[in-house]
Amino acid sequence: MPISSANRLRLFSFLFPPAGFFFLWTHPAFSFRRRVIGSLFLVLYSFLYAAVPAALLVRANVLFVEWPGGTLPRLTRSPTLPDYAKLEADRAQSRPPRMKPIPTTSYWTGFRGPNGNGAYTQTTIRTQWPPQGLVPIWKQPSGGGYASFSFGCGLAFTIEQRRDFEVVVAYDPASGSEVWTNAWTASFQESMGGDGPRATPAFFKNSVFALGAQGEFRCLNATNGIVLWRHDLFRENHCGNLTYGLAASPVVYDDKVMVVCGEPGAIGHTVAVYEAASGKPIWQALDDPAAYSTPMLVNLAGQRQLLVVTEDRAVGLAPENGAMLWSHPWKIRMGNRNIAQPVMVGTNRFLLSGGYGTGCELVEVAREGEQFTARSIWKNKNLKNKFTSSVLWEGFIYGLDEDILTCLNAQTGQRQWKGERYGYGQLLLAHGYLVILGGEGDLALVKADPSRSIEINRFPALRGKTWNYPAVENGLLFVRNAVEMACYDLRTK
Predict the structure, then answer these.
(1) 321 φ, ψ to 5°?
(2) Could you give phi then psi for residue 24, rounded to 5 degrees?
(3) How far apart are CA 195 and CA 104, in angstroms?
């Protein structure tokens, strides 16, 4: 008995939906109405056809769900997760540090560099990279988390997740050898944002200030890792954790250190400032819902102040006592996802930017007597920094609009160009060049040119999803993610 056209359609669709579509729209037995109705059913079945086997493979740990930073997750056989056994075996090897004499000064001492603006100005960098890319000075396994590096006393500092512990680690920059560790029991886990600590340690006067994802705040001796003082931010400031953990890095100024404490309760405080030497509380401020952006010490309208971005506004605080100088509304469409750092534009203006369709805004702060005001200069959707931060060079802003490199005129907000895609990565500025650590571990060098996007080189530097910010000290570039870390030489020969 011959198989009917309808049964053949069912058979083709069941075995391979695209074959069903082809048969449905090419066989003369089906009317246009039946083709449209059949196509709707085939679309629904195609989702089930792909989703059910994928779900079974995920359940069997053959495939894994990973969020690369966009709106949809991806399925992968190799998720970006630390291999603790490999890490422990590597650190157990005898590799004596090749440390040079301890420098009297340090440059990249905190998140996004000495001014928190992502600009490296210590030395000129190498811009002629080999076609195949740079060769690492060293590369080795890393613990989990999204922290970057800071530097002091001739050491490189970061914080990692190692099994059930958050661990502050000091490395010899020249060799990658581990010099000391300081650990405490903590394991922050979040399926979309990922696991592990986020905040980059800060260095100041032979001390390292480290913040864990669950509120453990420690000051450590920079040369040996011994605890000098500590605070439980959640308990002491009546705060709870954020959805994606504490991510704002400590900020050191005037022998003080400032931290974002978490989600405040009825009598809680969003930010707190402590004496750097003793850990003694100095002041607390704000009862705003907290966000993930690191505070910045800036000069606005002739006044030195702390620029803090919370869930729904940007504020200026007096550094000596936390008094509010001004406030300006700024809210991301998806709740407390203010992540990007403000970009200073001149002496009295700064740029705010956010993802999830929010866009960017230039804010101007003015002063009349002792009173400050803040107002919007322009606002558009030409630049949407999701969890990266932009940089300013010669009147133009360069940053990732979601995952596309974009250039804006800082005064008008007009888009100059949109360039290549770099995933949900990070970038820094070095003497007119952009060093971009892409969301998939690529390292790229792009000239900061407002006329067009000029990519000079791009090569794979790390394996897997990479959201960690790059850092540069004495011409050496340090990069890491949750799987591995590496050091590249950007010094001119």
Answers:
(1) -145, 0
(2) -60, -40
(3) 36
Q: Which residues pair with 476 in a beta bridge?
A: 473, 489
**Beta carbons of 210 and 186 less than 8 angstroms apart:** no
Q: Which two tokens stand for residue 415?
A: 């888009």
Tokens of 139: 């590369």
pLDDT of res. 1: 41
What CATH fold (topology level) applies to the domain 84-489? Answer: Methanol Dehydrogenase; Chain A (2.140.10)
Alpha-carbon span 59 to 66, nearest angstrom: 14
Every domain of the chain and the residues it spans: 5-62, 84-489
Distance CA 243, CA 427 (A): 25
Spatial separation of the C-alpha atoms in residues 163 and 183, rounded to whole Å: 11
Over residues 171-225, the pLDDT tens digits come to: 999 999 999 999 999 999 998 889 999 999 999 999 999 999 999 999 999 999 9
| Residue 195 · residue 187 · CB < 8 Å | yes
CA gap 408, 416 in Å, rounded: 5
Predicted TM-score (pTM) of the model is 0.90
Return the residue matching tokens 């978490």: 262
